[in-house]
From TrEMBL:
GO terms for molecular function: homocysteine desulfhydrase activity; methionine gamma-lyase activity; pyridoxal phosphate binding. Keywords: Pyridoxal phosphate. It comes from Streptomyces rapamycinicus (strain ATCC 29253 / DSM 41530 / NRRL 5491 / AYB-994) (Streptomyces hygroscopicus (strain ATCC 29253)). Its EC number is 4.4.1.2. Belongs to the trans-sulfuration enzymes family. Transmembrane segments: none annotated. It catalyses: L-methionine + H2O = methanethiol + 2-oxobutanoate + NH4(+); L-homocysteine + H2O = 2-oxobutanoate + hydrogen sulfide + NH4(+) + H(+). Pfam families: Cys_Met_Meta_PP (PF01053). It comes from the Bacteria. Coiled coil: none annotated. The keyword Iron does not apply. This is homocysteine desulfhydrase. The keyword Aminoacyl-tRNA synthetase does not apply.
Length: 376
């Protein structure tokens, strides 16, 4: 564990450490390679290539500043940054699954993660079992001698189910497997899975961590030899983030807690509005006291804030397109965790998903009410 006991907001701003040149904003080292002072320096980079700067597919000071912040906010000894969330997920699983590994995966996953696990990983010699992870007995029964890890999202995309991280971690560890959590929806502001015993946390940093919707980025934090194995594969696959995008994520991270606070407060009001509205049959938001995952989410988050993601099912699913088209403030776009509020028509034909941004809450409430009225 990383023993930085400063508050999260301080670590978000200062986790990157002081810049050796005194620059207050992190400089962008837009360079492919670094000059070697002499043969001794060359030898040092060959011996410990991920410590010394010599080539930006391996290491770069801007990327290192981002990774230092990520490690600090995740309470991890080490973090790695990637070109996208999918690059983090695929690189990690290829590293963990080497030579015939088996994975247990949540049956509720972001569509590309699910398809990667279901269709691609088996072609690389790995086996995958999908399990409803709210059923801990089913989880326990799914382990095999070759099981390397249990992979799940908290909260799940797009239905916002809440899984019992601590129970899943305990079962995974009983079977000598790792617990790998995609914490994109919850962010380190709501809770930090490594502090709950998980081994690896992953984010699509494209989303809340960056927050401005300007770059694709991925992040992963953890400890132990597995991190060396993932770093080595990242170097071979070339899935490291670019220095430019690393600087963009650093900039976004500094306001993460402010943004998640604001989005959480507005999302709760929006969820209450949707819940009371005659056009919806189900509203998925862990902050609603009646939500099935509320008690668990309350325990995980401390009850102050439940994030900016919600989704709902319409009583008349045939009206989905009309509702989607009726939004004027929420922007119709995929992705999430942006300062701009987004409405997404997810795979499920009955469900619309909202990612709440930082606009004036009343404008978003008016927009949602108007859109839902269109479904009556
Ligand atoms: C939960 C979750 N994990 C991973 C990803 C993939 O991230 P990226 O789009 O940065 O590759 C996404 C993207 O939407 C996501 O929602």
């Amino acid at each position: 564990m990383n023993h930085d006991d400063r508050g999260l907001a301080t670590r978000l701003v200062h986790g990157r450490g002081p810049n050796p040149l005194g620059a207050v904003a992190t400089p962008v080292f837009d360079t492919a390679s670094f000059a070697m002072a002499d043969m001794a320096a060359h030898r040092r980079t060959v011996e410990a290539p991920s410590v010394h700067d010599y080539y930006s597919r391996v290491h770069n000071p801007t990327v290192a500043a981002l990774e230092s912040t990520l490690a600090s906010i995740e309470s991890a000894p080490r973090a790695l940054a990637f070109t996208s969330g999918m690059a983090a997920i695929t690189t990690a699983m290829l590293a963990l699954g080497r030579r015939g590994g088996h994975f247990i995966a949540s049956d509720q996953l972001f569509v590309n993660s699910r398809e990667w696990l279901a269709h691609d990983l088996p072609d690389f010699g790995c086996e995958v079992t999908f399990v409803d992870l709210t059923n801990l007995k089913a989880l326990d029964a799914a382990f095999r001698p070759a099981t390397r890890a249990v992979f799940f999202e908290e909260f799940t995309n797009p239905l916002l189910d809440v899984l019992d991280i601590e129970a899943i971690v305990a079962i995974a560890h009983d079977h000598d497997a790792l617990a790998v959590v995609d914490n994109t929806f919850a962010t380190p502001v709501l809770f930090r899975p490594l502090e709950l015993g998980a081994d690896i946390v992953i984010h699509s940093a494209t989303k809340y961590l960056a927050g401005h919707g300007r770059v694709l980025a991925g992040a992963l934090a953890g400890s132990g030899p597995v991190m060396d194995s993932i770093a080595l594969l990242r170097r071979r696959l070339g899935t490291i983030i670019t220095p430019h995008n690393a600087a963009a994520v650093i900039e976004g991270l500094s306001t993460l807690e402010l943004r998640v606070d604001r989005a959480s407060a507005t999302a709760l009001r929006l969820a209450e509005l949707a819940d009371a509205h005659g056009a919806t049959s189900t509203v998925n938001y862990p902050g609603l006291p009646g939500a099935p995952g509320h008690e668990l989410a309350y325990r995980l988050t401390g009850g102050h804030r439940f994030g900016g993601m919600l989704s709902f099912t319409l009583r008349r699913p045939a009206r989905k397109a009309v509702v989607y088209d009726a939004f004027t403030q929420f922007v119709r776009a995929t992705s999430l965790g942006d300062v701009v509020s987004l409405v997404d028509s997810v795979e499920d034909p009955d469900v619309l998903r909202l990612s709440v941004g930082v606009e004036s809450p009343d404008d978003l409430l008016t927009d949602l009410e108007k859109a839902l009225n269109a479904a009556l």
